[in-house]
Each structure stands twice: as structure tokens, then as C-alpha cells.
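Hi L., both proteins are below.
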Amino acid sequence: MQRTIMLTAFLSALSIAFADPIADSRRTAIVTSIERAAPAVVSINVSVVRAQRNVPPMFDEFWGFFDIPRPTNQIEKRRINSVGSGFILSAEGHILTNYHVIEDADEVVSVTLPDGRELPVTVVGADDRTDIAVLLVREPQRLPTIPLGDSEDLLTGEWVIAIGNPFGMLMKDPQPTVSVGVISANHRRVSSSVGNGERLYQGMIQTDAAINPGNSGGPLVNARGQVVGVNTMIFSQSGGSVGLGFAIPINRARRVAEEIIQYGRRRDPWAGFKVEDVQSLQPAILAELGVRTDTGCIVRNILRTSPAFEAGLRPGDVIKKINTQQVDTASDIDFVLWDLFIGDACALSVNRQGRDLTVSFVIQEVSTAR
């Protein structure tokens, strides 16, 4: 009996030792990360209203000769499925996506989950400058969510997964697509010409994970299944992925989403001054203003009720840095301010007629500061 027990134990140990190594190796950290995150990734369905003419424009003058009703234009309402992606933030049904995913839509109708459920949604609010929007499921039910990570805790070269619905209108099933890559770089300063200089495409995460049309608004996920970025754009001459994808860091996206959920909008940060690039002014003007530096931005206008004026900033001061960010052009200041929130601290390194000083103040809301 004892010998039988020992033989059974030996065979059991032997089976463990010779378990299928390929089967074990298939369940990698990337696989478990996708299984954790993908159920909460949604495709976004919108409707577009278009006016369709019953009669060609060349006949417009014709109807004026006759006392009969002119034919009216026919309104056509079309539904477009899966123009972009998003992901569920909370059990209450808040969904985060890019603003540019929904900005041209007449109505955001619904979202489709990977399990096939289609849920009606409303737009809670959006912020054009940071390219973030928040939707809300109208009738919350049992919803999967994705945990949010820390975009400041990223290592160049670590694995990330882009999850979304590229070319979603061509697909007949709701399951999202995944693509795997690495963090190519972090805190990328994208040219101010991208987004026509009106969007905060600064401090971006760069990845070589394939991002294609329809991926916008979907999550960039780390190996723990946590969202570290919002897939937003690519650089490509062909329109397809060439390994230059960019995501908005989740730390910024989270704060914008929290503002939208609480206030229905992103409160507009305000400092109360306007500047002009030093390099754009003639030497004679700079000499007249007492400017003794050839870089930075000179303060041309400032409101006396502004937080910056109360902190000591004055016309003629040349701003060299804002919160450790070097200032070369006015857009450098704008981008830092757009990334701040009401109550955040702001420090300006200033040169005043050859003397260096620091001006510090707290960001206020534009609607309440004036």
C-alpha cells in the first residue's frame, strides 16, 4: 500500500515536471492584460444629419416664374457606426474618448461593448483644447471598467497595448482589436502646427504599437492592464500606421475627465496676461522697452485684476520659463497653462531689464477671475 502511494506521488511529480511548456508560455503578461482591459473598450456610434435637395440648384430661379410651391429640401438622418473608440471609466457608466471622435457628429447615439451590448449614451461634456470628451450610459447596468495607471511611471521600451476599433465600420463584430508595441518615448513635444496650435498635443506618449483610423479614444494599456494613455493620432504620409503613434497621458486625461464629470465642462485656466515673442520684435523696440535678452516672450498686456499681476508680473517683463518649461514662443506658455487646472501653482522665471526674478501665483478660472 505504501509503495503504491509513493509511486502515485512520484508519477504526479513527474507529470508536473514535464507539463507542456508551450501551453504555459502562451499566457503571458500581455495576454492577461488584454483579458483584463478589453471588455471595457467600446466602439462609438453616431448619427449625422444631411440635407438632400429634391431639385438641382439650377432650377431655383425657375420656380419664381410660377405661382406654385417650391420643393423643399429633404432632411436625411444617417447613422454611422464605430467612428472611434472609448473605454469605460466607472461603474456609473462614464466613458472617456477623444473629443475629435465626436466633434463632427450631430448626435452620439450609442456605444457597443465587446459582448455585443449596445447602450444609449449622452455627452456629459468635452474639452477641445485637450481633445478629451466624456460620455455617460443612460441606463447603467453591470459594466466592466479598466483601472487607470500612472503615465508618469513609464519606462522607455516597456510593453504597451493599443486597444480599439480601427476601421470599425468595416467589421461585422464588436470585439476590439489589439496591437502590441513599446513606449518609444515619453513627454514628447509635438509641433505646435499639429492641431493648428489649438490643441494640447504636448507631453505626449509615443509608441510603435499600431494605431489606425478608429483607434482614436481607445486605451493604451500597460502590462498590468492599466490605462496609461488615450490613443489619439499618428504621423503617417499614407494614413496607415508606420510606428509613430501618440497618446494623451492618462494623468492629464483623468483630471480633465474629473472636471467634466463634476462641472459638465473643463474649467478654463487663466493667468491674465498676453505676450509677444522677443525674436519677433525689432532691436530698436526692444531697446526702447529695456529688454536685455534675445529669447523668451515679453509681456505686452496684463490685467490688474489677474493673479499674475497681483503676484508682481509687469508689462515689459520677459518670461524665460514657465514651471521649468523653457519659453521660446507664446505657444510654449499657452501649452503649459492649458495643462494646468484651477488651484494649480504656476511659477514664471522672468527677466526684468537684466534682473532675474521669479513670479509665482495660483491659476484661477477665467469666468470668475475678471
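That was the first. Here is the second:
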Amino acid sequence: MHCKIALYFSLGVLFYVLLLNAGSLTTFYIFYLLLGLSVLLTALIFRTMRRNGVAVKSKYWNKILFQLSFNLQGNNAYVWGKNHNESHHLYTNIEAVILMY
């Protein structure tokens, strides 16, 4: 897991540095797209790992990694978590509620 975390963050930093040092407009757009994909991949992977509690052993560091990766994507981690839990996980594994629908 630690290698995966380091790899994804490193890719984001690498593409950002390459983007800033692009020599032509074409390479700028290529690094721009790769940066966007790497940030999106980082956010999706960390969101899943953090929600499953497997990114790291510490709950504190899981929370920090989740917020960092989510906020780098341009979303607010707190608002997403609140909306996601209230709309999707409010009645998880409650049979009576499932049968009402």
C-alpha cells in the first residue's frame, strides 16, 4: 500500500513539474491531461482505500490521506462524506427499510 500511495502522489507531482516546464503547447496539453488523470486516479484509489480503512493502519492518517486526495481533485471531502453517507449508507443492512421500497 505504501508503494502505491507514493507512486500515485509522485506521478501527480511529476506531471505538474513537467507541465510547468513544457517547451511547446502540445507537450503542455499532454502533461495537463496526464496530470488530470493522475489526480483523478489518486482521488479514486485513496477514496476507496480510506473508506475501506486499508490505506494505513492509523485512522488519523487514513482521514488525512482521504482529505488530501479528495481536496486535490477539487471536491470537499467533508461535504462529499456527509452527502454520501446520508444518501447512500443511511439504511445499510436494515431489512425492514429495504422491503419498504
